[in-house]
Amino acid sequence: MKNTVKVERAIKDITQQELANAVGVSRQTINSIEAGGYIPSAVLVLKIAKYFGKPVESVFELEEGE
Amino acid sequence: MKTRKYLLPYTYKKVGMWMFIPFAAICFCLFFDVKLPAIKIPWIAIGDDFFYQGTADLLTEVGMMGLLVSLCFIALSREKDEDEMTAHIRMQSFVWSLWFTSAILAFGILFIMGLDFLSFAMVAFYLYYLVYILKFNLTMRAIRRAGR
After folding, report:
1. What does the pLDDT look like over A18-48, one tens digit per residue?
2. Which end of chain A is less crowded, N or C, counting CB atoms within 10 A of the terminal residue's CB?
3. Quick check: A41 and B81 CB within 8 A?
4. What's the pTM?
């Protein structure tokens, strides 16, 4: 799964810690999501998209073959 | 999944680590037949004729039980930053440890015989806990280092 969390975070000018606090996870989780090392749950995906005020599909995208 | 329901608070991890040292030392001595003071106490257990009324060695019972409790405290306590990714890694570590321990047990069953099998069984009691704790904590450490 691809995501633009880092880009959205840069647009909003917030740190990983601030985003983590806002959606209720650890900073390591946000870092792993941005690096593509962890696929977040549906609840977390919705929380992140809601925080950025964007539709889910514009922040998270399925990759070829998934 | 709410980890608060089935995991101990974080402080139990530190308590478990401190408990592990003396009880592991006792079990290490028991494993290598180091002479320890024998304190016999009356004991009721399941044995010959179903109920066994005899004596047990206090140090052996306390040492092995203490090691089990300390490993449970370490393995089953929450992380400071427990969230869904930690829960995911926890589950992965459980499964990985089960595979690894099963392979070791299979090897022991097939290739370790006689009295040595008793020694192997004594270690096998704790093998799953030790492997899980190592796997989980090494994975979490790698993630924390990558996130710096």
Report:
1. 999 999 999 999 999 999 999 999 999 999 9
2. C
3. no
4. 0.87
Contact assignment for B84 to A40 by CB distance below 8 Å: yes
Q: How many residues does chain A have?
A: 66
Supply the ipTM of this predicted assembly: 0.87
Chain A interface includes B46 (CB < 8 A): no
Minimum distance, in Å, between the CA of residue B128 and any CA atom of chain A: 26
Chain B CB within 8 Å of residue A37 CB: yes
- Choose the mutation target among A26, A34, A48 for the interface with B, i.e. most B CBs under 10 Å: A26
Closest CA to B77 of B22, B140, B6, B137: B6
Give the burial string for A12-44 (b: 16+ CB within 10 Å, else e): eebebeebbebbebbbbbbbbbbeeebebeeeb
A6 touches chain B (CB under 8 A): no
User: In B, residues 79-108, which contact A (CB 8 Å cutoff)?
Assistant: 81, 83-86, 88
pLDDT digits (tens, 9 = 90+) for B100-140: 999 999 999 999 999 899 889 989 989 999 999 999 999 99
pLDDT in tens, B47-71: 767 777 888 889 999 999 999 999 9
Q: What is the DSSP letter of B45?
A: E
pLDDT > 60? residue B1: no
What is the CATH code of the structural domain delimited by A2-61? 1.10.260.40
